[in-house]
Amino acid sequence: MSEAPLLVVDGLNAFYGTAQALEDVSFEVTGGSTSVVGRNGMGKTTLCNALVGIPPARVTGSVRYRGTELVGRPSYKIAKLGIGYVPQGRRLFPSLSVDEHLRMLSGRGGRGKRWNVARIYELFPRLAERRRNGGAQLSGGEQQMLAIGRALITNPWLLIMDEPSEGLAPAIIEQLIETFRTLEQEGLAILLIEQNLGMATAIAERQLVMVAGTIAAETTAAELSTDMELQRRYLGVEPLADRV
User: Fold this and answer.
1) CA-to-CA distance for 214 and 23, rounded, in angstroms?
2) Is the distance from CB of 84 to CB of 161 less than 8 angstroms?
C-alpha cells in the first residue's frame, strides 16, 4: 500500500486585490524532500505564505495537511498541527537572545518532544556558543541556523523553508545542505522553496518548477542539473554545467 500524502495542494490560487499571484497550483508531498524552484517574482514566497496562512493574499482552493484543510486557518493554528516554517529573511527578534528564541517555543508542535533546546545546540554547536547573543548580533549563517532551530523546536512533521540560502557564503550553504540531509534521514519531510538551483538539486531529487505563479514542470534533480535548455527555458539562469 502506498503512503498517504502528507500535504495535498489542489487548485490553489492567491490574489493581491485583482492581481493573481498563484494560479491553480497543485502538487503533493508524501515524504522526503521536494524543491520548488523559480526566478524572483514567480510567486514562490506567496506560495509559502498561502500554505502556512500568512496574509495579506486572498487564497482560494485547497491545502490539506494530514487530511486537515488549512485554507482559512490562522497561521498559529497551522503551526500547531506540525508544520515548521523558516521564512525568507529569517525574521528573528533583535532584542531576544539565541536561547530565548528557542526556549519560548520549546515543547510545542505536532511531533511530541523529539526536538528540544539541547538537541538544537547539538545540531548547531555554533548556536550554543552564541546562546547569549541577540538575533541582530549573529552572522547571516548563524541567523539561518537559529531560524531553522526555531522551526525544528516546534517538532514538525513537515518543514517549509523559503530561500534558506539567501545571502549566505558557499561554505555555509554546504553546511546547511548536510544538515537538511540529516533531517530527512531522521524522517522529516522538507518542502524547499529556492532560487539557488545548486542547493535545490543537492537537497531534493524531486523538483517542481514555478513560472508566473504556476507549476510549469515537474522534473528530477538529475535532469534539471544537466539539461541546459530546461534551465534556460524555465529559470532563465546560466546553466549549472557552465559554472565553475
Assistant:
1) 6
2) no
**Structural domains for the chain:** 7-82+157-242 (3.40.50.300), 93-154 (no CATH)
- Average pLDDT along the chain: 89
Q: Which residues in the chain come in under a pLDDT of 70?
A: 1-2, 106-113, 237-244
For residue 106, the model assigns a pLDDT of: 67
Cβ proximity of 43 and 202 under 8 Å: no
For 206, the enclosing helix (H) or strand (E) is: strand 206-211
Please work out, in degrees rounded to the nearest 5, the angle formed at the alpha carbon of residue 154 by the alpha carbons of 148 and 158.
Answer: 70
Q: Which helix (H) or strand (E) holds 27?
A: strand 19-29
Phi, psi of 172 (to 5 degrees): -70, -40
Residues 6 or more apart in contact with residue 163 via CB below 8 angstroms = 44, 45, 88, 193, 194, 195, 196
User: Prior bond to 164 cis, omega within 30?
Assistant: no
Query: Shortest CA distance to 164 belongs to which of 134, 128, 140?
Result: 140
Bridge-based pairing state of the strands 68-69 and 58-65: antiparallel
Percentage of the chain surpassing pLDDT 90? 71
CA pair distance 127, 146, nearest whole angstrom:
7
Q: What is the pLDDT of residue 120?
A: 94
Write phi, then psi, for 217 (nearest 5 degrees).
-160, 150
Q: Which residues contact 145 (CB under 8 A, 6 or more apart)?
A: 124, 126, 127
What pLDDT shows up at residue 1? 45
166 grid coordinates: 539567501
